[in-house]
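Try this one yourself first.
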C-alpha cells in the first residue's frame, strides 16, 4: 500500500446517442417501428494521482477547440463535448489545485479524441507519457488511413512527446500502481490499479466501462464503441476478478455517479 491521494479534474460534459453507451438501448418493434432516439450526457474527467514517486495525470481529456474544427464535424455531431472550451486542461488543473508544471508523468488510458486532446500541453517536454504499444500503433493506423476507428484525431497525439511505451498485460512503473491492459473498447486501453494506504485497492477502468451498466450489469457498449466484444468480455472478467479477490472499488470512464463519488477524493 502506498500513501497516495486522488483528485478529480473536471473536464466538462459530452453528449451522445445512448445506443453508443448501451447496446440496443432503443430498438424498434412492430408496435413502435420508429422509436425516438435518446441522447445521454456523461462527464469527461481526468485524475491527479499524488504518489510519493510522482504527481501523475491520468488522461488528458478533450481538446478545448474540439467544437471549433479540431474534431471532424461528423464526430463532433455524434459526440458533442459542448463545454470543452470552458474546461481546458490548464484551467481545470488550476481549479483542482494543481498546475501543468506540477505534473511529473501522464498515464494515457487510450488515445480517443475525448481522452488525448490535452497531450499538446506536454509537447516538447521531458514529461513521460505512458501508453500501450497496441494503442499507439492503432491510433496512428486509424488516424492516417481509411481503416481502423474514426475516433482518433492525429492532432491530439502526433506531437513531440516523451512516450513511455507499455508492452505487457500488466506493468508496474510506480510503487503499488499497476497498468492493466484492458482491451475491448480499444486494442490497448490501460486501466490503473492503485493500492492506497488506509483505503485499499481501487481500479480506474476508464472506458472499459463507459457507464456503470457496462460494468455492473455487463451490458456491452454499442458496436461503434467496441473494437472487440470478445476482448471486452475477457477484460470485464479480469476486472471483476480483481474486484472479488482484492475487494477493489471500480470506477468507470464517463459515469456521473462515479464522478460524484470522486469529487472529494476516494470515498
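Now uncover the answer:
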Amino acid at each position: 500500500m502506498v500513501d497516495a491521494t486522488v483528485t478529480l479534474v473536471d473536464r466538462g460534459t459530452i453528449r451522445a446517442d445512448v445506443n453508443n453507451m448501451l447496446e440496443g438501448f432503443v430498438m424498434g418493434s412492430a408496435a413502435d417501428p420508429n422509436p425516438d432516439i435518446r441522447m445521454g450526457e456523461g462527464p469527461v474527467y481526468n485524475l491527479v494521482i499524488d504518489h510519493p514517486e510522482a504527481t501523475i495525470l491520468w488522461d488528458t481529456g478533450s481538446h478545448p477547440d474540439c467544437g471549433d474544427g479540431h474534431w471532424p464535424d461528423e464526430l463532433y455531431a455524434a459526440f458533442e463535448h459542448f463545454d470543452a472550451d470552458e474546461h481546458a486542461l490548464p484551467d481545470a488543473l488550476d481549479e483542482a489545485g494543481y498546475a501543468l508544471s506540477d505534473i511529473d508523468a501522464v498515464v494515457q488510458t487510450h488515445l480517443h479524441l475525448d481522452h488525448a486532446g490535452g497531450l499538446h500541453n506536454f509537447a516538447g517536454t521531458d514529461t513521460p507519457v505512458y501508453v500501450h504499444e497496441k494503442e499507439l500503433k492503432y491510433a496512428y493506423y486509424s488516424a492516417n488511413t481509411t481503416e481502423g476507428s474514426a475516433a482518433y484525431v492525429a492532432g491530439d497525439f502526433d506531437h513531440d512527446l516523451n512516450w513511455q511505451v507499455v508492452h505487457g498485460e500488466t506493468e508496474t512503473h510506480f510503487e503499488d500502481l499497476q497498468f492493466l491492459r484492458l482491451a475491448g473498447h480499444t486494442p490497448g486501453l490501460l486501466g490503473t490499479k492503485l493500492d492506497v494506504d488506509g483505503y485499499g485497492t481501487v481500479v480506474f477502468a476508464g472506458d472499459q466501462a463507459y457507464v456503470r451498466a457496462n460494468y455492473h450489469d455487463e451490458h456491452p457498449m454499442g458496436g461503434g464503441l467496441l473494437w472487440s466484444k470478445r476482448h471486452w468480455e475477457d477484460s470485464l472478467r479480469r476486472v471483476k476478478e480483481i474486484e472479488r479477490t482484492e475487494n477493489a472499488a471500480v470506477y468507470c470512464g464517463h459515469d456521473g455517479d462515479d464522478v460524484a463519488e470522486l469529487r472529494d477524493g476516494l470515498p
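Discussion: The chain has eight helices and eleven strands. The chain has one domain: 5-27+37-262.
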